Amino acid sequence: MNQEEPTPITWIRNNQDKLVKFIQELVRIPSVTGSEEEIQKFIYKKLTELDLKPKFIYPDIETLRKSDYYFKTTSYTKFGYKNRPNVVGILKGAGKGKSICLGGHVDVVSPEPIEQWSRDPWSGEIDGDFIYGRGAGDMKAGVATIIFALQALKETKTRLQGDVFIETTIEEEDGGIGGTLYLRLTQPKADAALIPEFSGPAIIIASAGVMYFRVIVTGIPAHAATAHYGVNAIVKMVPIIESLKSLNEERQKTISYKYAEVEPRMKGKATTLNIGVINSGDWPSTVPAVCVLECRIGFPPGETREMVINQIENTIKNAANKDAWLRDHPPKIEWFGWNAKPHEQNPEHPFVKLLEKKIQESTGITPEYIGGSAGLDARFFVHYGTPAVSFGPYGENLHSIDERVSISSTLKTTEILVCTLMDWCGVELDK
Ligand SMILES: [Zn+2]
Question: 137 C-alpha to center of ligand 1: Å?
């Protein structure tokens, strides 16, 4: 190699303004789950320019239904999959090296309430080391690191031996079914996978089981002046709520998971049952006849979905049996939306160890292993036999107001990504 030719790392450092501009461009395209088409077209164009052979992959619901990990997402119910492509591309290796898949989701959660933001959530404004905007940290900067890492290899004519598959996916915020799951069912299997989701200087090796359920209690409507002629559905829901609250406390006392409890505030909170929505009643002068409660249960690796479903249904049944009305009019329980199985990636796998080493070399920090309290797309790779972790740039206020991502951390992540690729896939020496 000629001494003056830049390495991929020096190329990244010399071109950081291009990376920043690219993240801003991504942030400026609103892509709330369900509206991913425009940003995917933008990425397709970028991958074409880099000769990464992009393709649009539209999810097919019949194929998805055959998977054990399928569930009907709320965004599919609302928008279908017709205008919601995934984008895949490939940086073809010279041969004989190990392959890798780099994945990232392009959908973001709603920026509401916008009036609470100190700036336009779709502006990509810069202040100091931070780029602001909905999706800046979750995970448009991460998507940019993937594309920029491959650009650095191309621009410096660094030829890898193994193939690098790249995918930008839809619907992660709603369970990843039409995105990362669909691609596991239809795309070639890689030897490892990395998703640059926000992680701080840590490696995420686990995700939670996440399920949604709904409890419906019915009463009898009546005029408020003769309320005793009716049965108040809100009042009848109270013992159900109390029982779920006690179940949550009991579970938090007995269930622990070390990777979920690394952060001090997460101690004893590896599992959570959240009462998220309650709907009932028309106005103060009527006894409400129906009350609907919606909850999310998150649980770390260790329990199965069936175990958790049984426990929750029994808790509700036992609470109902203590009340004469509810005993005769049992609450209805419906499981809907999120139905994710937890996963844990073995931290001893050579790919995980390699990434750890590259982070150490680049930052001087030994990253912690974390995860297991939220659902993650990485689980689909692991469920289908590909070792996978998440590691990405540092961000703040994700899913909140004034979301922002650190520019220096995004650059560092890109460098670590390139070093990991060169080591994992191998570099062809004679070019
Ligand atoms: Zn994300």
Answer: 8
